[in-house]
Write a structure and sequence with these properties.
There is one protein chain. The chain is an alpha+beta fold and 399 residues long. The protein folds into three domains: 110 residues, Orthogonal Bundle (Butyryl-Coa Dehydrogenase, subunit A, domain 1), CATH 1.10.540; 108 residues, Beta Barrel (Butyryl-CoA Dehydrogenase, subunit A, domain 2), CATH 2.40.110.10; 152 residues, Butyryl-CoA Dehydrogenase, subunit A, domain 3, CATH 1.20.140. It is built from eleven helices and eight strands. The strands form two sheets. Strands 1-4-5-8 form a four-stranded mixed β-sheet, covered by helices on one side. Strands 2-3-7-6 form a four-stranded antiparallel β-sheet, with no helix packed on it. The longest helix is centred in the middle third of the chain and has 35 residues. The protein starts with 19 loop residues before the first helix and ends in an 11-residue tail after the last helix.
Length: 399
């Protein structure tokens, strides 16, 4: 018996939220968003109406109760059609996922976040900063205790969902905290004073995310929206969950893009002819080798991501090795996507470089994966130190 064609998604029984016709509408809008450098507002509205922003809110609190593994599969599918839309929404989904995992583990300190998400609030991420190569664990922003909360001063970048977020998740250093400096994590309401969104987003790729800067000028986060206060470099279940939900989301988005690149280039090869061949370019040995290289890069990504996400979702205890495992999966997917899209562009011939080609946009979008944390330099440090049994908070950092 000849087995039916299968891929990683077809091997998993999935709960699918988004109908195929909706995803195809997203795909039709992608080029316009990219050309006009415009936020994916219509996609966002459709996703919100479909309940996509609450898929990982626990069922008991009004959501679908999706685990990390289930959300990753859905995000991969969305990214296949609309990468920037998936990337922007990932910032909201990862905050909700963190709160949901803590809630299931008996820590209800962020139940308010889950209830607000179920009520329609939109969460964004404010971790990226210039001059900080260890986001989340350290910060260049300043936090100060004030009556009723904390004030934050500093500049954040890569603030996706700028037009629509209502809660901005961020962190800053409380230098004079009792007992020593603390990194304070909180969520800034959009109606707060003391901040400005600075429209800086005009980039190579992922243009529809509208990831503008946020300038904090003493903006106050009320105590009820303070999520954690930890020593610089310190990590608890909240911090490790940030790594899991954010990075595994990134990884699956770029995996979805790599699958799209494969599916775009192969039909074109079969249809392409040459005067030097009696059959299509699919029979050229150089093309066959390039296609084989692409497939061999693509095939291992899905099983790797699926295993890590499933182990997280089922509570496998990797202890201090979890950050390294998560980062390894993210780097694997992003680096492979980069190479796969490059190969697809080369195999497409000159047609791929035209603005009318979807491969041209994918080529640009794929460049962005290396900028998401952890980048290759930090990834090698964390993975190498973990394998060698060196604590990530050990000082001095090197030497």
């Amino acid at each position: 018996m000849v087995p039916q064609e299968m891929n990683m998604d077809s091997m998993i029984v999935e709960q699918r939220v988004l109908p195929e016709d909706m995803l195809k509408r997203f795909a039709e809008r992608v080029g316009t968003y990219d050309r006009e450098n415009r936020f994916f507002q219509e996609d966002f509205d459709d996703l919100k109406r479909a309940g996509y922003l609450t898929i990982n809110v626990p069922k008991e609190l009004g959501g679908r109760g999706f685990t990390l593994a289930e959300v990753c599969r859905e995000q991969r599918r969305l990214a296949y059609y609309a990468p920037a839309t998936a990337l922007g929404i990932n910032m909201h989904l990862y905050w909700v996922g963190i709160a949901a995992d803590l809630w299931r583990a008996g820590d209800h300190s962020l139940e308010w976040l889950l209830r607000e998400a179920a009520a329609g609030e939109v969460f964004a991420a404010g971790h990226a900063e210039r001059g900080n190569d260890i986001p989340v664990l350290l910060s260049t922003a300043v936090a100060k205790k004030v009556d009723g909360g904390f004030s934050f001063t500093g500049r954040k970048m890569f603030g996706s969902l700028a037009p629509v977020w209502t809660r901005y998740g961020m962190h800053g250093v409380w230098a004079d905290a009792p007992g020593g400096p603390q990194v304070v994590h909180g969520f800034l309401p959009r109606n707060a004073k003391g901040y400005r969104i600075v429209e800086t987003w005009d980039t190579l790729g992922m243009r529809a995310t509208r990831s503008d800067d946020v300038l904090l000028e003493g903006a106050v986060v009320p105590d009820k929206y303070i999520a954690r206060s930890l020593p610089p470099g310190g990590a608890d279940a909240f911090i490790v969950a940030v790594f899991a939900w954010a990075l595994m989301g990134f990884a699956n988005i770029y995996y979805g893009m790599a699958e799209r690149a494969r599916d775009l280039v192969l039909p074109g090869i079969k249809a392409k002819s040459s005067m030097g061949l009696t059959r299509s370019m699919a029979y050229h040995p150089g093309i066959q080798q390039g296609v084989a290289d692409l497939i061999m890069l693509l095939d291992p990504i899905g099983p790797h991501l699926e295993q890590v996400a499933q182990e997280w979702s089922t509570g496998v205890d990797h202890g201090a090795a979890w950050p390294a495992k998560i980062i390894s999966a993210k780097v694997h997917a992003v680096e492979a996507c980069w190479k796969i899209v490059d190969l697809a562009m080369e195999l497409s011939g000159g047609t791929g470089m035209f603005k009318s080609s979807e491969l041209e946009r994918l080529f640009r979008d794929a460049r962005c994966g290396r900028f998401h944390p952890a980048n290759a330099i930090l990834a090698h440090e964390i993975i190498g130190k973990t394998a060698l049994g060196i604590g990530l908070d050990e000082q001095p950092r090197w030497g």
